Amino acid sequence: MRRASLQTVAGKASARLHGARGAGPAPRSLGPLGAWLALACALGLGLLSPQAAQAQSAAQIKAGQDKARSCAVCHGQLGISSVPNAPNLAGQPAMYLVEQLKAYRSGKRPNEIMSVIARPLTDDDIADLSAWYSAIRLEATAPN
Ligand code: HEC
């Protein structure tokens, strides 16, 4: 009985699909306006997305993930901190992370822990680590 009614639903759904396909070339009706909209979106994304400006390569992100193993004790596996005094790194702009790590390394931003950790890092290490953390996607939810 149950199976039969499911089949009916599936049958109706596929009928609807076929109907929709027969309804004509809907996407084409946008015409030149559609093309302009697509162009505007592409331009907007290119100009507004900080990620596009500093596109991190997949290889850099992967290398960063490997190098970040030693950071996970405090900053968490995915950059969400596991200790209360360490900040989250996930989703931070790569440019910001690079700047902070270089500041710890040079002593410009003094911190007992991070100065020691950043000292041996090369510019490549810093770029890879920053690529990894900035590539992690977060979803923000407003408080209730
Ligand atoms: C023992 C714990 C610990 C480890 C391990 C650790 N960190 Fe940190 N990290 C901290 C703390 C604590 C701070 C906050 C320091 C401050 O107040 O400046 C921090 C701050 C940072 C910041 C600055 C973030 C911001 O919002 O300004 C970056 C970037 C960072 N850590 C990267 C790393 C990376 C990359 C590694 C691994 C190579 C690492 N950390 C390993 C504890 C740690």
CATH superfamily of the domain at 58-135: Cytochrome c-like domain
- Biggest pleated sheet: none
Q: What is the share of helical residues?
A: 55-70%
Radius of gyration over alpha carbons? Answer: 24 Å
* Ligands and ions found: heme C
- What percent strand? under 5%
Q: In CATH's first tier, which class of the domain at 58-135 applies? A: Mainly Alpha
Number of distinct beta strands = 0
Order of helices and strands: HHHHHHHH
Task: Give the overall form.
Answer: globular
Q: Which CATH architecture of the domain at 58-135?
A: Orthogonal Bundle
Low-pLDDT sequence parts? 1-27, 36-53
Per DSSP, the total helix count is: 8
Strand pairing plus helix content: what structural class?
Answer: mainly alpha
Distance between the termini: 44 Å
**Might you state the CATH topology name of the domain at 58-135?**
Cytochrome Bc1 Complex, Chain D, domain 2
- Let me know the average pLDDT: 77
Based on the model shown, name its key terms.
144 residues; mainly alpha; Cytochrome Bc1 Complex, Chain D, domain 2; 62% helix; globular; disordered N terminus; binds heme C
